[in-house]
Amino acid sequence: MTKPPAMQKEAKERADEVSVAFLILLERLPPEARAAFLLHELFGADYREVAAAIGKPATVCRQLVIQAKAQLRDEGPRYTVSREVHLNLLREFARSIEHGDADAMSTLIDDNAILTADGGGKQSPVCAPMIGGQRIARLYLAVSRRYAGKLDVKIAMLNGHWVALRYTSGTLESVQSIETDGTRIVRILVQRNPDTLSRIAALLART
Predict the structure, then answer these.
(1) Where residue 105 falls among pLDDT bands split at 50, 70, 90?
(2) Phi then psi for 138, rounded to 5 degrees?
(3) Using an 8 Å Cβ cutoff, are 136 and 143 in contact?
(4) Number of domains in the chain
(5) Residue ranges of the RNA polymerase sigma factor 70 region 4 type domain (predicted)?
(6) Do residues 95 and 194 both lie within one domain?
(7) Which of 45, 75, 105 is the C-terminal boundary of a domain?
(8) 3-state secondary structure string, the chain?
(9) pLDDT range class, residue 139, cuts 50, 70, 90
(10) What pLDDT, on a 0 to 100 scale, did the predictor assign at position 45?
(11) CA angle at residue 181 from 177 to 183, to 5 degrees?
(12) pLDDT value at position 63?
């Protein structure tokens, strides 16, 4: 059996191989549930190995994985659209962010859209999910004004999924992953955790 620290390290590396949107959802799980899920689902460890790695009984680890799956399922995508439609909407969204285009944002973001941000406790993310297209648009417009002339938004494919990378003064500041109903954006997941951004930047450098 691989030593628990090594197992945890490899499981964390496996997390970089899943979609950014899924990674953001993973980071919203409680630490023990996230560790148990990664070890069992991504690394293939059985519950006895998971128990040894995180210091919890195997029965508890099993419940942690079940709970993690339920939370990920509840927070997962609700719509199925073509990659082309998704990419086109993401491109329009990226342009509206970079140029601070209020009209475009109002058209693109659904009135009942939800924005969820993760700063890992090291940045100043939205404390709770932000609901409402106008509120979300105002947040992005405020950032566009604050970093006028220093903002650059690029589209990139990470692990098979298209995302918008927002750079300020050349530094990766956040990753935006969207969910769309095929017409408008209904959900935005924003990653601002510096540790996660460092892993994403390293992943980009290898591609």
Answers:
(1) very high
(2) -60, -35
(3) no
(4) 2
(5) 25-72
(6) yes
(7) 75
(8) CCCHHHHHHHHHHHHCCCCHHHHHHHHCCCHHHHHHHHHHHHCCCCHHHHHHHHCCCHHHHHHHHHHHHHHHHHHCCCCCCCHHHHHHHHHHHHHHHHHCCHHHHHHHEEEEEEEEEECCCCCCCCCCCEECHHHHHHHHHHHHHHCCCCEEEEEEEECCEEEEEEEECCEEEEEEEEEECCCCEEEEEEECCHHHHHHHHHHHHCC
(9) very high
(10) 85
(11) 100
(12) 93
55 shares its domain with 127 = no
> Does 135 lie in the same domain as 154?
yes
Is the predicted pLDDT of residue 188 greater than 60, yes or no?
Answer: yes
- Residue 136 makes CB contacts below 8 A (sequence gap 6+) with 105, 109, 113, 115, 130, 188
| Mean pLDDT across 13-38 | 68
CA–CA dist 109, 171 (Å, integer): 26
Q: Could you tell me if 177 and 92 lie in one domain?
A: yes
Give the CATH number, domain containing residue 69: 1.10.10.10
- Determine the Cα–Cα distance for residues 127 and 189; give it in Å rounded to an integer: 13
Give me 176's structure tokens. Answer: 């935006």
Q: Which two tokens stand for residue 100?
A: 């601070």
